Amino acid sequence: METIEDLGKLTFPALLANSVKKFGDRPALAFALTDDNPITYTEMNENSIKFSKLLSALGLGKSSKIALYGIGCPAWGTAYFGIVNRAMISVPLLPDFSSAEVKAILEHCQVDALVVDSNLYKKLSDITESLPPVIIDLASFSVIKAPGKVPTDEEIAKIELPVIDVPEDEIASIIYTSGTTGRSKGVVLTHKNLVWTAIQGQYTHRINKLDRVLSFLPISHVYEFTIGFLMQILNGACIYYLAKPPVVSALLPAFTKVKPTIILSVPLVMEKIYKNKVLPTFEKSKITKTLYSIPLFRRILNRIAGKSLKKTFGGHLVFFGIGGAKVDPKVERFMKEAKFPYAIGYGLTETSPLLASSGVRITKPGTIGVIVPGVDMKIANPNEEGVGEVVAKAPNVMVGYYKDEALTKAAFTTAEDSCGEGYFKTGDLGIIKKWHGVPRLSLKGRSKNMILSASGENIYPEDIEFILNQHPVVAESLVVEDDNGLVALLQIDEEKLEEEAKKRLSLSDLSLSKIKEGLSDIKENLSDLKEDLSEKADQKKEELSDAMAYQKEVIINEIKFYVNKQVNKSSKIDRIETIKQFEKTASQKIKRYLYDLRSKVTKR
User: Fold this and answer.
1) Strand pairing partners for 84?
2) Who's near 550: CB < 8 A, 6+ residues apart?
3) Model-level pTM?
């Protein structure tokens, strides 16, 4: 475990120098599927210095803002150190940002240079006039665009970088979020914010130089960056980048080759595994389905499934970190009973991000976990049940929002709040209760998402969504208001809906086998009436199609009854709508602001 005493200062230069000193010859960064020889810590440091020299040769220096627009790869981390170790400011951009979003950020932040992945650079062809004067290719560090003569490799190598003292409160990153509320904000984070979080994260899980990390989340997201990159570099682990979308065809060979000990993920990944792989296995026969409904046998079956799942992940997994959103309680119960090595983390971009967490051995389904040492967390303005807004003071809380004093001021509590002034307001509703004598945080939902019923009761849409997502045909859900009440927006698993509809279709004269038999009879007895045969076949198919559509509608309507019998009176759904595909943020949260069904008159 590396500490502040090992580093001397909470800065990126101090962190990298410590890692090079202790782990210089150890492997540091690689591509999961193509690299057999990862670059070492010493090589990463040398490459970062070369990149710093390149930036210097292009006229960039202290406080210059450099945007990083690319997927997770060895060059990304190398470039990041090359930027911040010279007191320049990194502006990470999420790979799924559109050209319009990139344009808005570049202009708002007044970025001096852009380091970009070649594939993502193609996305920016419609905003070339808005791009900064310096553009560098991320993979090769070759100069794509510069205001003057492009320096040669020989000229860059001759540059002598002066010794520079980077203070802890120096800005390291301005991270623009694409959140569920719709407004992209530039979160200003210092060296101390990020390095302190990496050090404190070790209380959740101890990392060592033999750990292997498989990284597939966007590294420009602070969760993957701080926990999946910085915390690993701090301790000498090796990070392998998938460099592809995390689909099964790419993940399985990566698991086999890397045999990761550490993986970071979002809840959606495990929820899909549970709903699409684990649960169907236990429900394919009446016997296993019955056994799975009995707690004792459910635990035994989950334990068996857990062993198989760990083999799928390469057989060496010791830490599967989950962050970004609440975990479905049934999925978490499965992981717990399966003895799958999962851990829960909670925080925001504004808190670099970790505020509370549960290590593998202390997870408790339904709760986030213990408060990170050094974080002063409180529940502001709690109701009679103890639920209120989660607020925090800590060394990892942001400086503020870039160029937005009003928004920054609104993000912190005042003397009028029950907790006192100066606490960062997370916007999350939660409660802190002791478990075995240790305070643990549980979340109830977003304060902005909370719906006030006509009778004055608090409705937490996330709780209703958890229930909706248990239904076999529901892939994802969102509960919102319209002018008349609560609406459940559902993304349906079409394959499962089709299967269920076929099971229910008991009209024997409309079954496919009966149609075939009928057509055979018609051929034998009315072979000369081909036109009539075609008509009858089309009619039968149309009847079957109509019957299938009817059954599907019945199933969707039943979902309303399914959820309403499990919630209280004020949380009952008034109607259901289906959505083809929800739009999401980088951390796979649905962008709620896009689905507000209230009229302008009723919006609060």
Assistant:
1) none
2) none
3) 0.81
67, amino acid identity: A
Specify whether the CB–CB gap between 23 and 41 falls below 8 A. Answer: yes
Count of all residues that appear for the chain in the document: 604
Reported as half-sphere exposure (CB side, CA atoms, 13 A), residue 201 has a value of: 32
Q: What is the pLDDT of residue 101?
A: 86
Provide the β-strand partners of residue 451: 459
**Which backbone phi and psi does 49 adopt, to 5 degrees?**
-65, -40
pLDDT tens-digit map of 418-454: 999 999 999 999 999 998 889 999 998 877 776 766 5
Beta bridge partners of 582: none
List of residues 6+ apart from 128 with CB closer than 8 A = none
Name which of 366, 368, 304, 315 is nearest 339 in CA terms: 304
Percent of the chain clearing pLDDT 70 (strictly above):
90
b vs e for 428-443, b when ≥16 Cβ sit within 10 Å of the residue's Cβ? bbbbbeeeeeeebbbb
* pLDDT score, position 327: 86
347-389 pLDDT tens trace: 999 999 999 999 999 999 989 999 999 999 999 999 999 999 9
Rounded Cα distance between 290 and 280, Å, is: 13
Can you tell me the distance from the alpha carbon of 212 to that of 28, in angstroms, rounded to the nearest whole number? 9
What does the pLDDT average to over 22-35? 96
Q: What's the Cα-to-Cα distance from 273 to each of 189, 263, 324, 335, 475, rounded to whole Å?
A: 35, 15, 17, 11, 12
Please say if the pLDDT value at position 516 is more than 80.
no
Burial annotation 113-123 (CB, 10 A radius, 16+ → b, else e): bbbbbeebbeb
Give the model confidence (pLDDT) of 143-158 as tens digits.
999 998 999 999 999 9
What Å distances lie between residue 386 and 106, 379, 404, CA to CA?
Answer: 43, 8, 32
Say whether 388 sits in a helix, a strand or coil: strand
Task: State the sign of the Cα–Cα–Cα–Cα dihedral 398, 399, 403, 404.
Answer: positive
What is the secondary structure of 66-100 as a DSSP string? EEEES-S-HHHHHHHHHHHTTT-EEEEE-TT--HH
